[in-house]
């Protein structure tokens, strides 16, 4: 069951979910709430000369964190924004921290905004799920699939959070490879 704007506000008031900073009233839609882009982006580098460019996520000893550290750098979005060229992938974060309390029977999805999707901006490729018990800022896989460059600005509305009630309480909260991952800021 998807929570309405009223349900989201009730869940926040009772402490089942926390969004910090709290979104202003105009960020709520009938079935979700807008989240903003943080000022930090992770940009992928071209492989160095002689470096094997192939990523092998199923290979022995593969670590996502080590792979990203070895091929990407963090930048701060300046006053002029960051121009995302067509076909380029960057990692971003939500400005808001989202905490889905363990035992609250809530999970969420992060979805793109249709106004951005229609110009080619995708904010998650295949990873919309925010598991029950997750806490922190949400990492976004941002790619420009459109025909023109798109300027990203810190603080812009970049995605929406859809909260869903789970049928039961998970046996354990989220503890996958991204639990406790470093967040921007």
Automatic annotation (TrEMBL):
InterPro entries: dCTP_deaminase, dUTPase-like_sf, dUTPase_trimeric
Any GO BP: dUTP biosynthetic process
Enzyme Commission code: 3.5.4.13
GO function term, MF aspect, one: dCTP deaminase activity
Keyword Hydrolase assigned: yes
Enzyme's top EC category: hydrolase
Keywords for this protein: Hydrolase, Nucleotide metabolism
PANTHER family, alphabetized: DCTP DEAMINASE
Name recorded for this polypeptide: dCTP deaminase
Organism whose genome encodes this protein: Starkeya nomas
Lineage summary: Bacteria, Pseudomonadati, Pseudomonadota, Alphaproteobacteria, Hyphomicrobiales
């Amino acid at each position: 069951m998807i929570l309405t704007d009223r349900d989201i506000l009730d869940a926040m008031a009772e402490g089942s979910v926390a969004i910090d900073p709290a979104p202003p009233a105009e960020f709520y839609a009938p079935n979700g709430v807008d989240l903003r882009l943080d000022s930090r982006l992770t940009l992928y580098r071209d492989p160095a000369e002689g470096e094997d460019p192939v990523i092998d996520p199923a290979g022995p000893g593969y670590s996502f964190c080590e792979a990203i550290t070895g091929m990407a750098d963090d930048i701060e979005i300046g006053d002029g924004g960051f121009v995302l060229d067509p076909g380029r992938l960057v990692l971003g974060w939500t400005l808001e921290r989202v905490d889905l309390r363990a035992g609250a029977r809530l999970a969420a999805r992060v979805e793109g905004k249709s106004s951005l999707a229609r110009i080619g901006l995708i904010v998650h490729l295949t990873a919309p799920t925010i598991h029950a018990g997750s806490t922190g800022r949400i990492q976004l896989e941002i790619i420009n699939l459109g025909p023109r460059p798109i300027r990203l600005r810190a603080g812009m509305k970049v995605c929406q959070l859809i909260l869903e009630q789970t049928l039961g309480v998970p046996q354990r909260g989220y503890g996958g490879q991204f639990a406790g991952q470093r967040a921007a800021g």
